[in-house]
Amino acid sequence: MNAPPLYLVLCVVLVFVCAATSSATELADTSPVPVDIRIEMNDGLLTLETRDAPLHEVMRGIGKLAGFKIILVGDFIDPPLMNVSFKNIPVREAVERLVSDKNRIILYRIAEDYTQQRIISQVWLLQSGDASSDGVVSNVESIAPGREEDVKGHKLARLARMLQQDQNNSVRGRAAIALGTFQDERAVFALESALSDEDSLVRSQAIKALGRIGTEQASIALGNILLRGSADKSERIMASRALWNHDSEIAQDYLRAAANDTDAQIRSASTIKPLSSHKVGNTNDQSGESETQ
Predict the structure, then answer these.
(1) Is residue 114 helix, strand or coil?
(2) Across-strand partners of 270?
(3) Which of 256, 206, 266 is nearest to 230 (CA)?
């Protein structure tokens, strides 16, 4: 039997090579590596195992089981990937392990039962970054101590933009609460501008936030509301209560001036220290929710 010509053998080999290459390419395009997230919760304890899972997707999964909402502040185009394994730990501990305290703000609500425990209601992820091998976001933690104020300023600026520009009233109100937790003079300008917000809830949250910032400018902003007769009476009373939280002479001056107001309720609020007043730095919040950085 005559052997086939050499050029025919080469053609057959090339056809097989091309077919194999085409199949490999098609398989690679249609079979992406799936995100591996396993989450269980029993009796309030969380079991979590992840492999190369985006941080915000992991947090969303935990939020669905634990009943809290995840709010992203940032683009999260290149989120940190988490490789972690927890077994039967409290939800709050899991959140603390997963996210640096410089990268998130946690909002709480009070349980509506006899326990009155604080329960996570929202977790705000403020920025994305690289994750360390143990699953703790480390992009901010690796920053030198001298730059920590820059990180804080970045967060303040983001929240201030949300307070001043977001179209959602609820988001603006939350931003006001969050700014108050920093107790930083740089937050006063944005909070002061929110005192003219169209939404009454946003205005009241801004007043409470200013009450947690014990600086002179914060006292002046609150004092101007308290002494403005045309302002809403409930907001004037809130401003009075907030000023009681400021341990400063200027705050006392505003309260003494309001003690002569023509409205009896304003006079009472300015002369009788409320039982719920607290020094700046306390994490209690009269709205029924509190937060931590």
Answers:
(1) coil
(2) none
(3) 266
CA angle 167, 107, 213 (to 5 degrees): 80
The CA distance from 81 to 270, in Å, is: 53
Q: How confident is the model at residue 13 (pLDDT cuts 50, 70, 90)?
A: very low
* Beta strand residue intervals within the chain, DSSP E: 36-42, 45-51, 53-54, 69-72, 81-82, 85-90, 104-110, 118-125, 289-292
Are 171 and 71 in a shared domain?
no
- Residues 164, 195: contact at Cβ < 8 Å? no
- The 10s digit of each residue's pLDDT in 194-203 is 999 999 999 9
In a domain, 225, yes or no: yes
Domain match, 172 and 237 both: yes
Range of the domain at 243: 145-274
Q: Which residues of 32-46 are buried (b: 16+ CB within 10 A; e: fewer)?
A: eeeeebebebeeeeb
pLDDT, one tens digit per residue, over 16-34 is 434 444 333 333 333 344 4
pTM value is 0.53
Condensed to tens digits (0 to 9), the pLDDT of residues 137-191 reads: 223 333 334 445 566 777 788 888 889 988 989 889 988 988 888 888 999 999 9
Report the domain count for the chain: 2
Structure tokens at 84: 């972690």
Residue 211 lies in a domain: yes
**Residues 40 and 104 occupy one common structural domain:** yes
